[in-house]
C-alpha cells in the first residue's frame, strides 16, 4: 500500500528532504548513469508528492503550477525505487500528481519533459507527444501534454 503525502519545500522534514534527494540521485544519476545537476533551485517552488511504503519514500514526483517551470502546469522527477516498480506505484503516483494539479492549482493543462523510453507509460495517462525528440542531459526526451 502506498501512502501519499503532499508537501511544499518548507514543510519537508530534513530527513524527508535527504531521503528524496538520495532517491533522485539513486535513480537519475546512478541507475541511469547520467551526470547532471539534480539540485536546481526549483524544489523551493514545487509541491512534492511523496509516496511512502513502510515509512520509506519509494515513489516521488514534484509538481509546478503554470509559469513556475513551463507555461503550463508540470510534473517532473517522476520516479519509483527500482525494487518497487513491479507493483504499479508509478501509475498511482502519476494519477495522484495529475489530480493534485487539478485540485490544488485548479489547472487542467499539463506539460512534461518525458524520457522517450517512457512514452507509452505517459500515454497510458493520456499524455500526447508534441514536437520531436531532443536530448536533455544526454538522454532522449520528448515534450508531452495533457489537455
Describe this structure in words.
By secondary structure, the chain is an alpha+beta fold. 27% of the residues lie in helices and 36% in strands. The protein contains three helices and seven strands, in the order βαβββαβαββ. The chain has a seven-stranded mixed β-sheet, sandwiched between helices. Helix 2 links the parallel strand 4 (73-80) and strand 5 (110-115). The protein is globular and about 40 Å long.
Assembly state (oligomeric): single chain
- Summing up helix and strand content along with how strands pair, one would put the structural category as alpha+beta
Number of strands: 7
How many angstroms separate the termini?
Answer: 30 Å
Shape, please?
globular
CATH superfamily: Gcn5-related N-acetyltransferase (GNAT)
Largest sheet: 7 strands, mixed
Mean pLDDT: 97
Helix segment tally: 3
Along the chain, the helix and strand elements come as EHEEEHEHEE
How helix-rich are the residues, as a percent range?
Answer: 25-40%
Give me the CATH fold name. Aminopeptidase
Low-confidence stretches: none
Taken as a percent bin, the fraction of beta residues is 35-45%
Question: How many structurally independent domains?
Answer: 1
Amino acid at each position: 500500500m502506498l501512502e501519499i503525502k503532499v508537501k511544499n519545500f518548507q514543510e519537508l522534514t530534513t530527513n524527508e528532504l535527504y531521503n528524496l534527494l538520495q532517491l533522485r540521485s539513486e535513480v537519475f544519476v546512478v541507475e541511469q548513469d547520467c551526470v547532471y545537476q539534480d539540485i536546481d533551485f526549483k524544489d523551493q517552488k514545487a509541491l512534492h508528492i511523496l509516496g511512502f511504503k513502510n515509512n520509506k519514500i519509494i515513489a516521488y514526483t514534484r509538481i509546478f503550477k503554470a509559469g513556475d517551470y513551463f507555461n503550463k502546469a508540470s510534473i517532473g522527477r517522476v520516479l519509483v525505487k527500482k525494487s518497487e516498480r513491479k507493483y504499479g506505484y508509478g501509475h498511482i503516483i502519476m494519477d495522484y500528481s495529475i489530480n493534485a494539479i487539478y485540485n490544488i492549482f485548479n489547472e487542467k493543462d499539463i506539460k512534461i519533459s518525458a524520457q522517450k523510453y517512457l512514452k507509452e507509460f505517459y500515454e497510458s495517462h493520456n499524455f500526447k507527444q508534441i514536437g520531436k525528440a531532443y536530448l536533455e542531459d544526454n538522454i532522449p526526451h520528448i515534450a508531452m501534454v495533457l489537455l
